[in-house]
Specification:
Pfam families: 2OG-FeII_Oxy, DIOX_N. By secondary structure, this protein is an alpha+beta fold. The protein has eleven helices and 14 strands. Helices cover 31% and strands 19% of the residues.
């Protein structure tokens, strides 16, 4: 296994300037600004906040309004802050505390959990490897593991320290799985489908996988030159994100980068490519990225709800396709979709787009 330089070690080494592999291309640098200034902006579009209090209300009017709000945000933005989501706040705090404590361990201690991407062991502690033509790196380390269904987990890979990590994370995964069902129902109804349709299409209770990635973004001496995570869309069906209230998430909306505010006790939810494909582009999988800063470490906990890699062919649902709106996506398994995205990215890097 090749030793990988951790971004945390780099950040703690006292460097004043970052290695060239972390510096973004010139055309990207123009749009990277101070994240704290960006978060303060009140003008322009803001990521919607959706109150899920009434998502299963007995009162039909209240329930329908909640479904409508969720649908509107999914059609327009594809990302939102969820409040009154039903997940206990103290449980969210435990998940964050144990994740922070794990990342508070020495790099040597964390290395015991290192993944080995070259041999296909993707679960564990890692950093992005230069796998593209430009050799470009991102300013983050991470911990990645499958958290649900419980029978598919490999607890030998989970942090033993802190002692509450496994219990808190397992409990949180169970709660998120229930929340995902509620959201899938509302989004199905929003498309005029049977309530259980979307969840069935992505694998149902047995096959839908929940993968957690804790993203650790160390302080960066030159944050205006780097990104914590480069611009991408999520391949998942849904992604649920907690963070430590340090801003960094940016969404590409109507041609501009919009910085998400930090909403206390909320969960950020993204619509991923999988739902965009099934809805034939009605629900949006929005392009997003992560900024870094020099004052505060940022940590986020993303849980990706993913269909099984090869068992399901993803394509626009027949109800979403008509003469006026033909299928925008060819049939592909989830694995083929990921492969296609990587291939397309490599092609774009080899042949830079001509700018008019």
């Amino acid at each position: 296994m090749v030793a990988v330089e951790r971004v945390e070690s780099l950040a703690m080494s006292g460097i004043k300037s970052i290695p060239k592999e972390y510096i973004r291309p010139k055309e990207e640098l123009e749009s990277i600004n101070d994240v704290f200034q960006e978060e303060k902006k009140e003008d322009g579009p803001q990521v919607p906040t959706i109150d899920l209090q009434n998502i299963e209300s007995e009162d039909q009017k209240n329930r329908e309004k909640c479904v409508e709000d969720l649908k509107k945000a999914a059609l327009d933005w594809g990302v939102m802050h969820l409040i009154n989501h039903g997940i206990p706040i103290d449980l969210m705090e435990r998940v964050k505390k144990t994740g922070e404590e794990f990342f508070g361990l020495s790099v040597e201690e964390k290395e015991k959990y290192a993944n080995d991407q070259a041999s296909g062991k993707i679960q564990g502690y890692g950093s992005k490897l230069a796998n593209n033509a430009s050799g470009q790196l991102e300013w983050e380390d991470y911990f990645f593991h499958l958290v649900y269904p419980e029978d598919k987990r490999d607890l030998t890979l989970w942090p033993k320290t802190p002692s509450d990590y496994i219990e808190a994370t397992s409990e949180y995964a169970k709660c998120l799985r229930l929340l995902a069902t509620k959201v899938f129902k509302a989004l199905s109804i929003g498309l005029g489908l049977e309530p259980d349709r979307l969840e069935k299409e992505v694998g149902g209770l047995e096959e839908l996988l929940l993968q957690m990635k804790i993203n650790y973004y160390p302080k960066c001496p030159q944050p205006e030159l780097a990104l914590g995570v480069e611009a991408h869309t999520d391949v998942s069906a849904l992604t649920f994100i907690l963070h430590n209230m340090v801003p960094g998430l940016q969404l590409f909306y109507e041609g501009k980068w919009v910085t998400a505010k930090c909403v206390p006790d909320s969960i950020v939810m993204h619509i991923g490519d999988t739902l965009e494909i099934l809805s034939n582009g009605k629900y949006k999988s929005i392009l997003h990225r992560g900024l870094v800063n020099k004052e505060k470490v940022r940590i986020s906990w993303a849980v990706f709800c993913e269909p099984p890699k090869d068992k399901i062919v993803l394509k626009p649902l027949p109800e979403m396709v008509s003469d006026e709106s033909p299928a925008k996506f060819p049939p592909r398994t989830f694995a083929q979709h990921i492969e296609h995205k990587l291939f397309r990215k490599e092609q774009e890097e080899l042949v830079p787009e001509k700018k008019d």
